[in-house]
Amino acid sequence: MDFIGGQWADPAGAEGAIDDRSPADLSLQLGRYPYAAAQVDKAVAAARAARPAPDCVQLVRDIGAVLKKHEEELARAIALDVGKPLWEARTEAQACSAKAAITADEGMKLVSAFPAPGQAGAECRFRPLGVVAVLGPFNFPVHLPNGHILPALACGNAVVFKPSEIAPHAAEIYARCLAEAGVPPGLFNLVQGGPSIGGALAAHADIDGVLFTGSWKVGQAIERACLGQSKLLALEMGGKNAALVLPDADFDKAIYDVLFSAFVSAGQRCTAAARAIVVGPAAAERFARRVAQLATRLAIGHPLDDGVFMGPLASPSALEKFEQGLRATGADVEELLAPRRLAPRGLAGCYVSPSVHLVHRRRGTSYEREELFGPDLAVYPAGSEEEALEIANATDYGLAASVHTASSDTFDRCQRALLCGVVNWNAPTVGASGRLPFGGLKHSGNHRPAALWSTLYCAAPVAVLRGEPALDRKKLAPGIFWVDE
Predict the structure, then answer these.
(1) Of 337, 402, 395, which Cα lies nearest the Cα of 371?
(2) Annotated catalytic residue, options 236, 368, 370, 385
């Protein structure tokens, strides 16, 4: 069901439908969502015609209050739609209401008018872009789109939201929260569908900005679709993230942080630790075998069950893609822990156990280069800090990294050398502060960081010079001879 112009309705003349089944139990149908390309035009037209809220920032606060009220409902929808354990889904739902306060109290300060220092009558103001498209991912089906939508609304834009076709149910629950909060008709619209709907929305001539979270491949397609159009693109496109473990690090703490980073969300985070780079060949092998040992003890099961750390992958296609990526490990990669398909409680779902590999020699295979988006960790030995940094940067991505060391000087040196937008110290690669910018370099982003800085890509600066209200004939430019009428 779509939400357009303040009304809920299935599209007339549907071209297809999403059969939304829970990856935790494929016999559980969460909903059926018809879609049609004509809905894109309707949604964009409704957004273009929408009247702005009387107080955009207060609207965002109101949305935050409703999201807070429905946190448990949102969390359960997330858990069932993408297989995220309930404890983790609750964290995502809680982040949605928190984003409202961060946007209203802190993010809007970044787009507040300010005077030019030392120049009277000169100032910078900000205006909304107009109508923006938000294209959401499946791994954080509510939190990440919400991180675009609330800043966009706060800055005075209208929004058309196309969620991932893997998570339409969670998106519908989220949209119902915004409707309950009293968003004016057309200011927020939801259209369901697959890649064809997303492509049509991104390329639409009346869209002024595209705010996207997803893969590099899809991000490239969006860029191509928008060639020749003057619209803003804010793209966050994943990572192949590294955790550096230096000789002075607390070994157990580094192992825990990497274990958590690699396998939380079943490895389906753009900041997940895909690579651990350990200085010292003996230390690297010990590290890899210890992570593999602990990974066998992780609790894997239905996302609504108590005590579960890891649920299923988000869909059958996600599981197949993950397994296909693992088949490209190539020579000189030792499999310390092999993945296995699982059926907890006898359920037919998308469950798989973690895998751990020790890379004895780098070959530049697709396994080493490409984001797998599943529970796998590759461990690399390095002979020195310099080699560890070289391995970490030897990727087309540049989103997140962590450095495990007891020395602040060493961390500072590594942080400056790492080509990433997020660099954590003695902490997991996953988890980011909503009060800091979030984004990456190279294939990970296009220099439009989100989180706190998201208001900066939801508003356009306008330079204003104020002149005298009346003509001063003594200040005419040379060569102008003024004659009164």
Answers:
(1) 395
(2) 236
